[in-house]
Amino acid sequence: MITARAAASFAPVGRSVATARSFVRDTLQGWGFGDIVDDAVVLTSELVTNAVVHAGTAADVLCLRSDEGVRIEVADRYPDREVPLQSTAVSMSSPDHEGGRGLQLCAALAGRWGVEYTPTHKTVWFRLDLPARPVGTRAAGPSLPADLLPLADGRVRVAVVQIDRPGTITAWNEDAEELFGYTAEQVTGKPLTDLAAWPHTPGTSTGIAEALRLSRWEGSYGIRGAHGRVIPVYASHLRVRDTGGEPSTVCLLVRDHERAVLQTPLRLPASESTTLPESGQGADPFEVFIGSPAPDDLDGLLQRTVERARDMLDGDSAFLLLATDDETELEVRASTGLPSARQRFARVPVEAGPGRYGSARMPSVHDDLTAVPGAVPLLNGTGMRSVVTVPLKVEGRLTGSLGVAAEAPSRYSNEEALRLQFAADRIALAVESARLGELERLRRGSLSFLVEASDLLAGTLDRDQTLALMAQMTVPTLATWCAVYTIADQASEPELSYVLHEDEERIDGLKALLAKIDPPPPVPTPGARVWSAPATAAHDAALRTSMRSLGLNEPATVSSGIGTTLATAAAVGGETVVLPLVARNRVIGMLTLGKPTDEHFRQEILELAEDLSRRAALALDNARLYSERTAISQSLQRSLLPPGLPDVPGVEVDVIYRAAGEGNEVGGDFYDIFPIRDGAYGFAIGDVCGTGPEAAAVTGLARHALRLLAREGFGGPAVLERLNSAILDEGERSRFLTLLYGELWPQEDGSAVLKVVCAGHPLPLRLRQDGTVESAAEPQPLLGVMDDLELYEETVTLDPGDVLLCVTDGVTERREGTRMLGDDGLADVLTTCTGLTAGAVAARIMRAVERFASDAPSDDMAILAMRVPGLQKD
């Protein structure tokens, strides 16, 4: 018959394994079953590891107590997961095999065990029988002289409190009145939870109400006295029932530092047992507190350490923090006397707060935390006033911090800090060894296939490369062959996009086979489903090939039109599964995995493939969105540039345009050359502030306005002034614009006359035949900033052989470290272009700009070169 039960659930994270061990250990020790605690903890640890680490689901742990022993059940959320074959008695001869080790231990240690399935859970249970115990004394300590007995502050008060079924107090003895200041009349009928400050000891359950329902329990918590302060107590309780069958709970409470009177005296190592200090001689109790740490799990060791540290310095609370994996933060791993929310896994930076947790690197004493707010963030709002902290160091590295705090100010001095530091030095190596062992187990669990897959998929936004990665990650790790189907939109049919086989010679035959059969239906239901069409088609093809080789007629049941070899059919004839690729609530394709003839997938492989398919679907959809955005940007960019260059009589014209980035954003640079009227041509080169749609809007406005206004007969200044007004009319959407605009008239004598207006743009450069370079215009205000502009145009005559070079600031502002090409650098390059055609000038300028810096250009670049040929043929 079940006499008691305790249950807890643990999240699917690695640290839950240690928490589950603590839960089982505390529960069984509370029930008085210390003889079977170790076996129960080992089995629970293995089964919870299988659930939260390997299966990746939450684990539910249920402890059931009966007269014969204890039954512990561990349930996970994968009811269809099969029991590994390695867990059977057949494989017990291979204890080093990883699979099924938890069930092997169950078979070896438990009296009985089994596996049960429900529609929602799979439960592995085991039962541990209680060993036969002799009647009489169960444990006893040595007979010690009076001077070696633990000290108590005055008379030891043992409060006896009885609680009925609803949790209200029904009995309150005189020692309880002395300890807490309440009379029996004041508390009788009130819930104990109104007085209790829970918990000091974590891991048993979720609160004191749950602990009181256990048949036996022992641990620490606090009782709020009549003066309002919390008095730490050490409690043990027993649940009984009277002759009428009504249950109640009897609690024995002593002051927490007096718990030694209720415990077996410490057993010291043989090397230290002869040096036990005598009471009253001024000996430090931390010699007994430290010793050599008993073999235990990390959580048990840390909890024991903080409790003894608190006792050693007569503190109200204690805490121990360990360095995280990267050692940039300290993580609360054990505490006593602090609120439960601050007890486990809270993290604080090593260098944080006005008091700086950097002080964890050396002993520190704070007389009054109210004078230094935030000095120890862990103690904020706890009522603690004074605190002493010391570092745990191993080979000079900070691996943790141990602290003891008290509610009274100025409790501790440097002497207490030295005592606590000595204690910390004795246990630092043992704690660090246990910490590193725990970290290693966590690392092994995290180094998985999915981590590598996620990194690879996140490293590309190219659709074809993503498809190739999906296939290459599954073959041959998960399957013999793989095919990826994609769906462009909801109205499209699945399309075979990528095929891969572990034997490259089979890929063409496999692709031909799959191309002849209907693709799998795009079902959004998660999970793998069997697809029999490839195996059936492969079987038909193999049968037809065999009959042809024998000169027999093909039966009507064999489909025609599928040409493949027997080898290809054998490679595809096994189990085939389809996993949907679902991204943003839409099926964008299917991942198909196959095995050769007579082979099937293990459930673990399918679950891993399902996880991979979710990541791959998102990566594939991101690649699709990126490709669409790039295509739109490139199309918009082309629409903002002229479709071609006009043929200007007597003038060579050439343009080079380079957009920065990866082609997924619209640049702000533009150029244009267009006929205005007979014998006159307009040209412009400009740069809109910024990139993207807003800049594109201003670019389109500028280019089309220039053509329209110039053909209406307006001169250069009038054209730019009206364009400036149009930009300002855009309001908040407007962007300022630098623009070089000019009009060109070829002359009969072979020269060309230009009238130019340079509105905030890099000045055009004129290259003469003798190699001299000079500016061809004066700077004027840019557009899109001021309402009233007074612009003027300047006339330039290009003689035969002269070159006019116009660029955007992406050319002149090309940088390499602190160096910039600049106007002077551009002029130096231009002086080397004497005698070159316009196209050659533009190409040489671009090469010089690209070679100036090793990094890719960060800004768009446009180069417009115009040259008047010499009187003689160059």
From TrEMBL:
Signal peptide: none annotated. Keywords: Hydrolase. GO terms for biological process: regulation of DNA-templated transcription. It comes from the Bacteria. Residues 160-190 form the PAS domain. It holds the Pfam family GAF_3. One of its GO terms (molecular function) is phosphatase activity. This is PAS domain-containing protein. It comes from Streptomyces minutiscleroticus.
